[in-house]
Structures are given as C-alpha cells and as structure tokens.
Q: What sequence folds into this?
C-alpha cells in the first residue's frame, strides 16, 4: 500500500499533536521516568489514524526526537533520551500506536467507546509497558520487581489517559467518518 499526500499530512499532524502534548506539565517518578500526556497521543494516533498511519506518525515523532528536536516533555530530545530509563517507552511509541490501530480495526466498530477504550488500554498501555519496562530494567540495572513497584504508580494516570483518548477518538471518528476507511 502506498501512502497518499493525505496520509502524510495526517501523520505529520499527529506528530505535531505529540509535540504539543509534551508542553503540558509533567512530573518525574523515582528512577527518572517522567509522567507525561504524550502516551495519550500515542493512543490517539492509533485509534484515529489506524495502525499504519498511527505507526507512521509516531515514527516521524521518534525520528525528530532522535535528531535532537526538544519534543519530549520537559524539552528533551536527542540520542541521549534513548540511553535513559524512558528510552524504551519512546521507542515503543510507534509499536503501541500500531497496536491500538490494529485492535480498533479488528473490533470493526471504530465508534464504539468501550471497544476503543479497550484498544487504548491493551495497545497504548499494555504494549507500551511491554516495550518500556524491560528497557528501563536494562538501562538502570534495577531489578524487574523494583521497576514494577514504581511502574504501578503510572497505571491510574494511564487508565485515565486511555479513557480520554478513547472518548476523543470516537468523537473524532464520528465527526470525520472518512478516517475510518483506512
């Protein structure tokens, strides 16, 4: 499948949405992983754009971060980000967006709020944690149990972000049904 100009514009738009979400206030949990609104952007990209374009949007964002643009929360950017404990989560952004989009597509009901929220939880939280937590363990040298003890503090916020992303995605898809065609 080829990408159309429209696809590229939408992917660029969602990369910009991710950058804007990085401007929102953040706080840092012990062991150096920040809590940001950007994981919600991952869920929105997958749920609204679908697997392929959601992956592309997040891949653009990650590439821009790697090039040094300060697009992550707190104005972080550059290759050094990937050497820190949150690097795995950043690497997981495209994979998680793809998973959310795939699940929304598999459910075949892109305007179902409960199913879209479920896709955001499984793909946007579950997949992101599956990539980010092992990376966090590897980079910090902390035990898995120590990292999980901290990561569990993210769950309430991530659950709220999944609900918000699900509601927003369904609202957008209802308002713009042409987005559902891909």
A:
């Amino acid at each position: 499948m080829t990408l159309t100009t429209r696809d590229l514009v939408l992917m660029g738009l969602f990369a910009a949405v991710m950058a804007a979400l990085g401007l929102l206030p953040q706080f840092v949990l012990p062991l150096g992983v920040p809590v940001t609104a950007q994981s919600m952007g991952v869920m929105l990209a997958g749920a609204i754009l679908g697997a392929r374009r959601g992956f592309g949007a997040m891949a653009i964002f990650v590439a821009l971060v790697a090039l040094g643009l300060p697009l992550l929360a707190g104005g972080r950017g550059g290759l050094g980000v990937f050497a820190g404990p949150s690097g795995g989560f950043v690497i997981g952004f495209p994979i998680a967006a793809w998973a959310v989009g795939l699940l929304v597509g598999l459910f075949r009901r892109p305007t179902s709020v409960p199913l879209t929220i479920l896709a955001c939880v499984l793909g946007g939280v579950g997949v992101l944690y599956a990539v980010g937590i092992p990376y966090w363990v590897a980079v910090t040298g902390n035990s898995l149990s120590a990292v999980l003890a901290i990561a569990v503090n993210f769950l309430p916020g991530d659950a709220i972000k999944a609900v918000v992303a699900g509601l927003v995605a369904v609202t957008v898809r209802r308002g713009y049904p042409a987005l559902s065609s891909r």
Q: What stands out?
A: The longest helix spans residues 113-140. The chain has one domain: 5-179. The chain has seven helices and two strands.
